Amino acid sequence: MEKQRHPALRGGGSITPGGIYWLRYIIPALLVYGIFMAYPMLDSVRLSLYEGTTGTRQFVGFANYVRLFTDEVVSKRFWNAFGNNWIFFAYHMILQNALGILFAAILTNRTMRGRGIYQTLIFIPCTIAVLVTGYLFKLMMNPVWAGNTLKQAGLGFLVRPWLGDRSTALSCVSLVSVWQWVGIPTMMFVAAFQGIPDELIEAADIEGSSAWQTFWRIRVPMIMPVVGMVAIMTFVNNFNAFDVVFSMETLDGAPDYATDLIGTLFYRYGIAGQHPVGIPEPGVGAAISTTVFAMLLCGVLPTLRATQGKE
Predict the structure, then answer these.
(1) N or C: which end of the chain has fewer CB within 10 A?
(2) pTM to 2 decimal places
(3) Which residue range forms the structural domain that includes residue 71?
(4) Does an H or E element contain 189, and which?
(5) Domain assignment of residue 37, yes or no
(6) Residue 31 lies in a domain
């Protein structure tokens, strides 16, 4: 039996269900992804098997990976940055996303007035350049620049070198990043909450469910796919973080590598050159990025399996 054909919107042609006409629409996106994402990633894997700079590269196999995990200096820097990245990620995963769900729950309350204004205020920091945000907070946390103002306001206890203290530097950088990017998960959770059928909430109210029970037993389970996507975005983006440390601290992750992340470590080894040698080692940098990509993949796939497709 011949397949039913539907008239096309224009041109007098027709569309056959099940055809591959849709392929022409994704080819441009595939080309862009292949040229700017897939090819550089695969070439980075290839580059990790070489040492030396452009024109003098020599194939060394897995020597860069061996060096990454066994060399006293390189391994120390890598695991330090890796550990710092997990702390940086924890701040965003726990604090930022929890605030995002809280803000979204408040903003989707029908009795709340001025929701559009509050949504705008929460999202505005996301539109500011990270370098600008980092530099402004760096000035505000500088006891020399902001010390007198804080003392006059009765906040003298806040006058201390927050970014110069190893015990507080990473927390300060993380909190500034949380403040700037909390608007993105908030907007995603707002859209997810708004997609919950009103009949479910009304049925829960009729059954005598409290607001807290409705939130935890109906609203949160219904948005689990979005929670999973936000978790993946947080995981990937935080392990690619670079600019916030660059703007608030130095490329060495001052003080004493306390704020050094995988992004700054990769930049120093692969592009700028690690102190004190100062000679870029693209092979080591590529080994760092490839290793972190494999780790990210191990974290992303279980999260997708655990959260997607649940009702």
Answers:
(1) N
(2) 0.85
(3) 67-307
(4) helix 183-194
(5) no
(6) no
